[in-house]
Design a protein that fits this description.
It is globular, with a radius of gyration of 21 Å. The chain starts with a helix and ends with a strand. The longest helix is centred in the first third of the chain and has 16 residues. The strands form 3 sheets. Strands 2, 3, 4, 5, 10, 14, 15 and 16 form an 8-stranded mixed beta sheet that branches. Strands 1, 6, 7, 8 and 9 form a 5-stranded antiparallel beta sheet that branches. The chain has a 3-stranded antiparallel beta sheet with strand order 12-11-13. It is built from 15 helices and 16 strands. By secondary structure, the protein is α/β, with parallel strands linked by helices.
């Protein structure tokens, strides 16, 4: 049965002609009321379609809380004095689970910082926003605002876990005649791929700036929306840190022959590119729009270049394993976790550090403004 989201996309194509993969993804993921992320308060976990570090329990939030406390200690060391109120902004906050875990840890381990926090939860989904107050519970009085847009000015820390990978991307493919772009068209009611000239010269300019040359036949994703978001954030961050946790590679690795078809994938019930049960072969990312997650790996090179061009300083880019180990060492949390009652947290820590799992696939990017 055709979903409402599929019907919306098909009608858009009938009216305007084939649409870019980026426009398709924006509708499939975020169309009000019918997009994948717009219809549920939470998409990850055992009953969802994928796992994130947050689904392992509160330890990830505790680690971030300790890292943020260390950053808070540095906020008064630069040109500007540490503010009396610290903006703690989570982008793509969902129902607020990660911020709740961070605040739980800060209230317990860093009460002075906790009392200084003004929490901002940024989330496009009205359904997820409606669940935030209940999720925050006792921390609801820390909430300054919840909405779809970033605060106009941020003095403190902005963080996001697995945000950039969920931005709509353009899909490009190199041909012997030059760079082409993959569009979404229709064959009857079935969604199909169509290759045509690029919708904007910004796609070729992006690859050139990243030092990327695709071989004929190779595909890749170009995440213009992520760069726009980084520039927007940089313009709002007056003083403090930007912390991003996501999976990705430097451009030379991401666009290498090892990934000739790019990284765009769909997730459904913890299966990557789960096949359809019947009917003509449809690319997995075009199956059941609105019913599956769509994601692609982040180009770390281009994100860093965009941040630096917008005036931010790169503090650190490392894998999650190194970030977690360093935080454990600085905070003294490792000794606390050695107690017998913290076995669940130790098991979660193992998963956060495990090679081939969150530890090596996920990267932590830290940028700053006005910090020595």
């Amino acid at each position: 049965m055709e979903s409402l989201c599929h019907a919306l996309i098909a009608e858009r194509i009938r009216q305007r002609g084939p649409i870019t993969a980026a426009e398709y993804m924006d509708l499939a993921l975020y169309a009000p009321g019918i997009g994948y992320y717009a219809r549920a308060t939470q998409r990850s976990g055992r009953t969802g379609d994928f796992f994130t570090s947050v689904d392992l329990g509160p330890l990830f939030g505790t680690l971030l809380g300790d890292a943020f406390a260390d950053m808070w200690g540095r906020l008064g060391a630069g040109a500007a004095a540490r503010p009396a109120t610290i903006d703690l902004v989570e982008a793509a906050a969902g129902n607020g689970r990660l911020s709740r875990d961070v605040l739980d840890a800060l209230a317990r381990r860093h009460p002075d910082l906790y009392r200084s926090i003004a929490l901002w939860l940024v989330e496009r989904s009205e359904t997820a926003r409606a669940a935030q107050a209940a999720t925050l519970g006792a921390h609801a009085d820390r909430l300054a605002a919840s909405g779809p847009d970033l605060p106009a000015s941020i003095d403190g820390i902005l963080f996001a876990n697995e945000l950039l990978d969920a931005f709509p991307v353009h899909v490009v493919q190199m041909t012997r005649q030059g760079l082409g772009e993959v569009y979404v068209g229709l064959d009857g009611d079935r969604l199909i791929e169509r290759l045509a000239p690029p919708s904007t010269p910004a796609l070729a300019a992006y690859l050139e700036a990243a030092g990327v040359t695709l071989r004929p036949g190779m595909r890749g994703e170009v995440n213009l929306a992520a760069l726009d978001w980084i520039r927007d954030v940089a313009g709002r961050l007056s003083h403090g840190y930007l912390v991003l946790i996501d999976y990705g590679f430097e451009a030379a690795t991401l666009y290498s022959p090892a990934r000739p078809m790019g990284t765009l994938a769909s997730f459904h019930r913890h299966l990557v590119d789960a096949p359809v049960s019947s009917g003509p072969r449809t690319p997995a990312w075009l199956v059941d729009p609105g019913g599956r997650d769509l994601t692609s790996h982040v180009d770390l090179t281009s994100v860093r270049r965009a941040a630096e061009a917008a005036g931010l300083t790169t503090v650190r880019i490392t894998d999650q394993t190194r970030f977690v180990l360093d935080t454990l060492e600085r905070s003294g949390l490792a000794a606390e976790l050695s107690a017998p009652e913290h076995l669940p947290a130790r098991l979660a820590l193992k998963t956060l550090l495990m090679p081939g799992s969150f530890g090596s696939t996920h990267k932590v990017l830290v940028f700053a403004r006005g910090i020595d």
